[in-house]
Write a structure and sequence with these properties.
The complex is a heterotrimer of chains A (399), B (234) and C (200). Chain A has 399 residues and is mostly helical. Chain A has two domains: 56-262, no CATH class; 284-397, Serine Threonine Protein Phosphatase 5, Tetratricopeptide repeat. Chain A has 16 helices and four strands. A four-stranded mixed β-sheet of chain A has the order 1-2-4-3, with helices on both faces. In chain A, a hairpin with a 4-residue loop joins strand 3 (114-116) and strand 4. In chain A, helix 8 runs antiparallel to helix 11. The longest helix of chain C has 14 residues, at 181-194. Chain C contains three helices and nine strands. Chain C has helices spanning 6-18, 108-120, 181-194, and strands spanning 22-32, 36-48, 57-60, 68-76, 123-135, 138-149, 155-165, 168-177, 197-198. Helices cover 20% and strands 42% of the residues of chain C. The chains are: A mainly alpha (399), B alpha/beta (234), C alpha+beta (200). Chain A binds chain B through residues 1, 3, 5-6, 51, 53-56, 58-63, 66, 69, 72-73, 75, 158, 161-170, 172, 174, 177-178, 181-185, 190, and chain B through 15, 51, 53-69, 95, 98-99, 102-103, 105-106, 117, 121, 123, 159, 161, 166, 170, 173-174, 177, 179, 182, 187.
């Protein structure tokens, strides 16, 4: 009954309706409990039928149905038929019989996340698609989410949360889970899976991945990559402690577990070229979204890694060059110039490369080079949004 | 009790009473100059945006499918039961059609939030509105008007939570320990938009600790409260 | 049910009410941040949020969920454009993320990028136009943008102005729903901006 009704939202703490669960985010408490040898063996269950309407599972399903309608109608939904088909085929390869029950929604959000709801709705964010390097890595994530779905972890978690909350309340911690979970419509906490759930999803995901013929070794790599980015703000030991959720196995431990499992198979499909081909039409937009975040150090870790795999890619060189240009700390300008120059002579440079070069040359007071770059930019993109600004700069630069 | 606290308590009481009494004043719910819908006009019922939750003993809000489905049905039945009040020309918008009008729906949601925040509740009024219900979606509603042929549209939004049996026990236990605890609430709004101008001509909001949409009688009561003063067709 | 002691209840209520957002009418001659003078021919609503007090004034016509006019006046180098949230717990080695921060010597496109960063936090943003312009009597830049807001899936359109005077940033942004609101309210925002003058 708070008269100040609006939830508090600070900068960078977004109240995101679609953040169903950062289920794939790495963070956790140190020392994962030893896995019980009596753990349930995995079986891929048969297709789920819609639960009877009075069950708690049905409640989750129909809530998710309505959430899915919102996703579908959202301006942030990415609708690209080729990508949609590719993701659907990939999911079918992983979870064969369940394929008809699963619907994938790609959302334009520049963070690493994928989540799956009990009604078969899967959400993948563009930030994740930007960060995975090949089909096997993407399959590892989707396999993990399928693990949660096939074992109905969300439902267990809901029941578990209810029990925990009772204990917490009676112990006098009224603000604890009630505060986090008790808000109408907010589901992120409900899907903060327990350590046990995450580990089971990792294991089942790995099984599905390998059964579908993918290289299991790519799964731990996803966590390594994510960890490198998280260290920027999280500190070097971010992998062994929880930044967000107290229930996830730490990234380092997850990686070790997955490595062990991956050792069982080798020489399988990685699908780097295939993956790149499918995301090619959308990737430049995602790179721009990443640069827009203004988290330069994290972006540099990401772009360094991607460039490691594709050193002559014009778009990646542009993206990294832009970050150096915008960060503009000591030594950044020459780095920016280097990346952008290489981008301009690489294959199919986007017009924005020449805009960035013009701005860098302008910063270096090299009028001649700046004019050349700006003119090339306007020739390639006469209707560019900043044409007015660039023309004004040209007028100033030319004697 | 010290005088200062008595004054603060009195102020608080006045504010709460004021918001409770606001329901009686008509200009709070009607746009300036609006009284009734035009004769022979058609009313579009937009699917109610509704979620029902059960609050477990620990305070976890759990979505209930059977309740929500029942509530949807009860809501529709309760609306239909008002037949005469709704008018003779009533059109229902299908869920599938909502996809087509998603941007208008999103816009209305934001406008309704603004009305609730700045008009229905005291404390955050917009001085330039002069206490009037004066919001419009303008031309944005035209596709809806053209697509359905309706003259007015009724939008409703409800979030309802109920204390489960265990919760009520826990509340009692906590009360004995001296802590305040809440057992469920009903929040929502009903908004009537003139599709020819885009103006919100009538608006009512709900924020209470009572109400029960799960049973037909409870749903009728909620509808009655939500649609109190709903403009008739002469 | 037993109720909290009346004294405690009253104090809690008073504290909560005091810490609420307040909205005041602004009209005629107004001063933003003590440095930017504007003349309003039409009244606006000024929003003061004690929980989210960024270094800007925030005004609205139709309400917080709908439109906003933000005004920055005399922001100094090193100052972020938004308020940093309070960090209650920080693990060892944990750092703040970057906030859009004004520094000296920024070219127009870099000024615009500050606001691109700011809005990127709210959703998917795209700068749709950038051109030289005069703001508050200073040479600066004007930009337009589109924003798909993550919180409520609403599509907004926006416009902004930025200029630097004596190494301090003066800027304004206005955003409103793309459908009907932006076009209807834009002239009002532009009138405010046209009247802006730096003082002191």
């Amino acid at each position: 009954m708070n008269p100040c009704l609006t939830p508090r939202r600070g900068f960078l703490r977004s109240a995101c309706r679609h953040c169903l669960g950062l289920g794939a985010m790495a963070a956790g408490l140190p020392v994962l409990a030893q896995e019980a040898s009596s753990a349930k063996p995995f079986q891929v269950p048969g297709r789920f039928s819609r639960p009877a309407v009075e069950t708690d599972e049905a409640g989750l399903w129909s809530l998710m149905d309505r959430e899915e309608a919102r996703l579908r109608r959202s301006p942030l939904a990415i609708r690209e038929p080729a990508l949609d088909r590719y993701l659907a085929d990939l999911t079918c390869r992983l979870a064969d019989g369940h394929c008809p029950d699963i619907r994938i929604h790609v959302m334009r959000t520049p963070f690493f996340n994928a989540s799956m709801a009990p009604n078969g709705m899967m959400q993948v964010w563009s930030g994740l698609l930007l960060r995975v390097e090949n089909e096997a890595q993407l399959a590892a994530i989707i396999g993990h989410e399928l693990g949660h779905y096939l074992e109905r972890h969300q439902l267990e978690q809901l029941r578990d949360a209810k029990d925990k909350a009772v204990l917490a309340q009676l112990a006098g911690l009224v603000g604890g889970i009630v505060g986090a979970v008790g808000r109408i419509g907010v589901l992120a906490s409900m899907f903060a899976f327990s350590r046990e759930h995450e580990e089971r999803a990792d294991r089942l995901g790995m099984r599905l991945l390998q059964n579908a013929g993918y290289e299991g070794g790519e799964a731990p790599r996803v966590w390594d990559n994510l960890l490198a980015e998280l260290k920027v703000t999280g500190g070097d030991d971010v992998g062994s402690r929880s930044a967000l959720f107290a229930t996830h196995p730490p990234a380092g431990n997850r990686r070790d577990l997955l490595l062990k499992m991956a050792a069982a198979g080798s020489g399988r499909t990685v699908g780097a070229a295939e993956y790149r081909r499918v995301v090619a039409p959308l990737r430049f937009g995602w790179l721009l979204d990443e640069v827009r975040r203004g988290q330069y150090e994290e972006s540099l870790v990401l772009f360094d890694r991607l460039l490691g795999r594709e050193p002559a890619d014009a778009q990646l060189l542009f993206a990294r060059g832009e970050v150096y240009r915008l960060r503009a700390e000591a030594g950044d300008l020459p780095r920016a110039l280097d990346d952008l120059a290489r981008a301009s002579s690489a294959e199919s440079p986007p017009a924005e490369v020449f805009r960035a070069l013009g701005l860098v040359h302008q910063q270096r007071s090299d009028a001649g080079a700046a004019v050349q770059a700006f003119e090339r930019y306007l020739a390639l993109a006469p209707d560019a949004p900043d044409a007015g600004l660039v023309k004004a700069s040209l007028a100033e630069l030319k004697p | 009790m010290p005088k200062s606290y008595r004054r603060t308590l009195a102020l608080a009481a006045v504010l709460f009473l004021a918001s409770a009494n606001a329901q009686e004043v008509d200009s709070r719910h009607l746009a300036p100059g609006f009284q009734t819908r035009s004769p022979g006009s058609a009313l579009l019922i937009v699917p109610a945006d509704m979620e029902l939750f059960s609050i477990s003993a620990g305070g976890v809000e759990e979505p209930k499918a059977d309740w929500t489905e029942a509530a949807q049905q009860n809501f529709r039945a309760a609306l239909a039961a008002r037949g005469r009040q709704l008018g003779s020309r009533v059109v229902e918008l299908g869920q599938a059609q909502l996809d087509e009008f998603a941007d208008i729906h999103a816009l209305h949601r934001a406008v309704a939030e603004a009305v609730v925040m700045h008009h229905s509740r005291s404390g955050r009024k917009l001085p330039t509105k002069n206490d009037r219900l004066d919001w419009t979606l303008g031309e944005a509603v035209r596709p809806l008007q053209v697509g359905t042929g309706a003259d007015y549209a009724l939008f409703t939004w409800i979030r309802d939570s109920y204390a489960s049996g265990e919760r009520k026990v826990a509340m009692f236990a906590m009360a004995l320990l001296g802590a305040l605890s809440f057992g469920g609430s009903q929040v929502g709004y009903a908004s009537l938009v003139d599709l020819r101008t885009g103006r919100i001509v009538w608006f009512n909001d709900l924020d209470r600790m009572a109400g029960d949409l799960r049973e037909p009688t409870g749903a009728q009561e909620t509808i009655d409260t939500l649609l109190k003063g709903f403009p008739a067709v002469p | 049910m037993k109720v909290l002691p009346a004294r405690l209840l009253a104090a809690v209520l008073a504290a909560v009410l005091a810490a609420c957002t307040t909205i005041a009418k602004v009209d005629g001659e107004q001063m933003v941040g003590g440095k930017l003078a504007v003349t309003l021919s039409q009244a606006w609503n000024k929003v003061t949020d004690p929980w989210d007090g960024g270094p800007y004034d925030m005004w609205t016509q139709e309400g917080i969920p709908l439109d906003h006019l933000r005004l920055w006046a005399g922001l100094r180098a090193g100052q972020p454009l938004v308020a940093r949230p309070m960090v209650l717990l920080r693990a060892p080695g944990q750092k703040d993320p970057r906030y859009p921060t004004f520094t000296t010597g920024l070219q127009p496109d870099r000024l615009v990028h500050l606001f691109e960063q700011l809005y990127a936090n709210e959703g998917a943003v795209r700068i749709t136009r950038m051109e030289p312009a005069v703001f508050a009597g200073q040479k600066g830049v004007r930009f337009e943008f589109s924003l798909a807001r993550r919180a409520d899936d609403l599509e907004l359109r926006g416009v902004g102005w930025a200029a630097v005077h004596r190494d301090e940033l003066y800027a304004a942004t206005f955003a409103a729903p793309k459908l009907t609101f932006y076009q209807r309210l834009l002239p009002m925002a532009e009138a405010v901006v046209r009247s802006a003058r730096i003082r002191g």
